């Protein structure tokens, strides 16, 4: 059912894109609420950019619907109040940064005075008169964000905004995004950088092989913290833990045991294990990070995909694994 | 990056008033005009247009006349270079050589967005694809008119100087003829520019559309007219429906010299204008349909 919450600035229902026989985005149900910084997370090639292009009307969905700020792509001026930078900045090389933004300001029908304001915001005022062709990648990226801010958007859609930035530039960009979120601007941030998403976002949607495999708050995705135990003999420790906590709360790993239990109960658990004749060498609080959650979700989805497609679906490449771990 | 100005960049619901189509198109025209004016290639194309026109319409024939060496248009004598021949002289190059430059202008205006990947940047600012396309076409229409006027201006000055140098009386064409000539030149230039725009949209780029456009204008069109039409009846008939021969017919009807490549009276001036107007509308509509239907990748 396509029912739009008043708070929902982005809502997709069954959003699908197929190119020939290949499904790039598969029935994605995305929901971004007003005021949040929403992380759209997925490895390269997962369908993030295609989804964002469909949101913005650049790519027509094969099936499904999109609503941005309550408007559909066919309505009058569907992108009013929406700023976006998709798949890297793209500007005219023969124009300066300022002239490029003036072109966009005329397109967007915003006062030209906005140009200097957004240049100041992204710290490009000093180089605004230089030709875009001479900009570094980081400067181009900042100009792209400046272009997205021209309309004073209520919803800002940023696709990999920290690509190409040096560490200081990345930190500044993240601070800007967080600040925009704090000021009430809703941000839909697409990224393959887990740390960035965990650091910035209130809620996260995880996409893998074109399917949205999870959508929740970062806290919910990370789940309840537990305890990690290293002990000898491990089997005896596992049996005792199962009898104390229940079998579903005990997972035997290569190193020891991962227990789903309130970390405050560590002293009690230690006493019980020692009392059962187990030598406990380590007992520590264990929290999953987004990386672990991400791999669990995307690998699960890949396995499903392989089954569905007779094992033809590809694994994450080594390069992609490196990307998501950055 | 400074966040000091964030208060000024924060969300403002008041800026979300939907843009009317007219306002959107007007904004696009302003932006596209600024882009076109600041683009070096625009001025290079204009310079080439004027130099070609000056050189082959006036200077080379005048050199032939003055040196009595014969050659291109030498037999026409001084009369062909005087102000009363301004209309025909100014539009004679449009069926082929100046037309090729108009194709390039059309491709650059529309296809540059594919080359630089800037469609997404423009379209996410709000105007619809058709508003952007309309704005680009209007800008292109102004640019082609400006080019035609510049060719007329250069021709007027040059022919007046030649007349003065040769002690000839200066007789300008009547205003009606002048405006008809300017309109015809604008129509032919517009057809070729729209053809360039269509090629750019269909082929989503710059290099291939420019190449194919030039091959059509400079090679295929001439081969059909000069080689195939005299030998094959249906190709001769086909000439009456193709844009190049109709452009040649229109400018020939208005006094362009038939020694100029592409200038040949195949059909009447009125019929040629109607066929060209049809091509203009066709190219524009087809480009709009393509742009509207296809994904921006």
Write the layout of secondary structure elements.
The complex is a heterodimer of chains A (326) and B (297).
Chain A: E1 8-19, E2 22-28, E3 31-33, E4 37-41, H1 48-55, E5 63-68, E6 82-85, H2 97-108, H3 113-121, H4 137-149, E7 155-159, H5 167-182, E8 186-191, H6 194-200, E9 203-208, E10 211-217, H7 218-222, E11 226-232, H8 234-245, E12 250-252, E13 257-259, H9 266-275, E14 279-286, H10 290-308, H11 318-325
Helix pairs in contact in A: 2-3, 3-4
Chain B: H1 6-9, H2 21-38, H3 40-67, H4 86-91, H5 97-115, H6 119-123, H7 129-165, H8 175-203, H9 207-228, H10 233-239, H11 243-253, H12 269-293
Helix pairs in contact in B: 2-7, 3-5, 3-7, 5-7, 5-8, 5-9, 7-8, 7-12, 8-9, 8-11, 8-12, 11-12
Largest sheet of chain B: none
- Largest interface chains and counts: A-B, 61 and 46 residues
Number of helices of chain B: 12
Percentage of residues in DSSP E strands of chain B: under 5%
User: Structural class of the secondary elements of chain A?
Assistant: alpha/beta
Report helical residue fraction of chain A: 25-40%
Oligomer: heterodimer
Our measurement of the CA-to-CA distance between the termini of chain A, rounded to an integer number of angstroms, reads 38 Å
Overall pLDDT level of chain B: 90
Largest sheet properties of chain A:
6 strands, mixed
Q: How would you state the average pLDDT of chain A, rounded? A: 86
Tell me the Rg of chain A in angstroms: 24 Å
Shape of chain A: elongated
Structural class of chain B: mainly alpha
The overall number of domains of chain B is 1
| Distance between the amino and carboxyl termini of chain B | 30 Å
Tell me the total number of β-strands of chain B. Answer: 0
Low-confidence stretches of chain B: 1-15
Strand content of chain A: 25-35%
Descriptors for this entry?
heterodimer; A: 326 residues; alpha/beta; six-stranded mixed beta sheet; four-stranded antiparallel beta sheet; 11 helices; 37% helix; elongated; disordered C terminus; B: 297 residues; mainly alpha; 12 helices; 71% helix; disordered N terminus
């Amino acid at each position: 059912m396509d029912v739009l919450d008043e708070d929902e600035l982005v809502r997709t229902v069954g959003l699908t894109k197929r190119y020939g026989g290949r499904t790039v985005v598969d029935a994605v149900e995305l929901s971004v609420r007003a005021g949040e910084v929403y992380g759209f997370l997925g490895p390269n090639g997962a369908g993030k950019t295609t989804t964002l292009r469909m949101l913005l009307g650049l790519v027509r969905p094969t099936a499904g619907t999109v609503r941005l700020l309550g408007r559909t792509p066919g309505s009058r001026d569907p992108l009013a109040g929406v700023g976006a930078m998709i798949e890297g900045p793209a500007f005219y090389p023969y124009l300066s940064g300022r002239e490029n933004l003036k072109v966009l300001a005329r397109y967007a029908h915003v006062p030209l005075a906005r140009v200097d304001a957004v240049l100041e915001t992204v710290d490009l005022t000093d180089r605004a008169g230089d030709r875009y062709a001479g900009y570094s990648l980081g400067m181009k990226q900042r100009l792209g964000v400046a272009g997205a801010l021209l309309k004073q958007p209520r919803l800002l859609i940023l696709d990999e905004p920290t690509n190409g930035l040096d560490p200081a530039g990345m930190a500044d960009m993240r601070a800007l995004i967080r600040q925009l979120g704090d000021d009430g601007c809703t941000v839909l941030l697409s990224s393959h950088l887990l740390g960035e998403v965990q650091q910035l976002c209130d809620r996260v949607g995880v996409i893998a092989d074109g399917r949205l495999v999870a959508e929740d708050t970062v806290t919910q995705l990370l789940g309840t913290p537990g305890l990690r135990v290293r002990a000898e003999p491990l089997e005896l420790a596992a049996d005792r833990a199962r009898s104390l906590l229940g079998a579903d709360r005990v997972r035997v790993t290569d190193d020891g045991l991962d227990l789903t239990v309130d970390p405050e109960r560590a002293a009690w658990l230690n006493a019980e294990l020692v009392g059962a004749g187990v030598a406990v060498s380590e007992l520590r609080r264990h929290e999953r990070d987004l990386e672990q959650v991400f791999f669990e979700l995307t690998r699960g989805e890949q396995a499903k995909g392989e089954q569905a497609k007779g094992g033809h679906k590809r694994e994450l490449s080594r390069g992609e694994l490196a990307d998501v771990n950055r | 990056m400074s966040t000091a100005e964030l208060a000024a960049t924060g969300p403002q619901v008041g800026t979300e008033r939907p843009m009317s189509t007219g306002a959107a198109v007007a904004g696009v025209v302003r932006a596209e005009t600024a882009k076109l004016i600041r683009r070096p290639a625009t001025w290079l194309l204009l310079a080439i247009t004027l130099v070609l026109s000056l050189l082959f319409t006036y200077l080379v024939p005048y050199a032939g006349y003055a040196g009595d060496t014969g050659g291109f248009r030498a037999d026409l004598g001084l009369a062909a270079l005087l102000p009363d021949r301004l209309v025909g002289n100014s539009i004679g190059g449009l069926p082929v050589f100046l037309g090729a430059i108009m194709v390039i202008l059309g491709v650059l205006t529309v296809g540059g967005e594919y080359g630089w990947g800037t469609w997404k940047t423009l379209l996410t600012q709000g105007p619809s694809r058709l508003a952007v396309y309309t704005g680009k076409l209007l800008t292109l229409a102004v640019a082609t008119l400006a080019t035609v006027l510049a060719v007329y201006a250069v021709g007027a000055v040059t022919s007046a100087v030649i007349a003065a140098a040769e002690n000839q009386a200066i007789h300008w064409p009547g205003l009606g003829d002048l405006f008809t000539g300017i309109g015809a030149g604008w129509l032919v230039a517009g057809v070729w520019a729209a053809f360039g725009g269509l090629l750019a949209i269909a082929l989503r780029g710059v290099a291939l559309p420019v190449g194919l456009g030039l091959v059509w204008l400079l090679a295929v069109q001439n081969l059909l007219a000069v080689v195939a039409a005299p030998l094959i009846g249906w190709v001769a008939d086909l000439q009456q429906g193709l844009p190049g021969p109709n452009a040649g017919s229109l400018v020939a009807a208005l006094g362009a010299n038939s020694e100029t490549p592409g200038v040949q009276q195949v059909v009447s001036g009125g019929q040629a204008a109607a066929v060209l107007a049809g091509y203009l509308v066709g190219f524009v509509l087809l480009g709009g349909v393509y742009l509207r239907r296809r994904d921006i990748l």
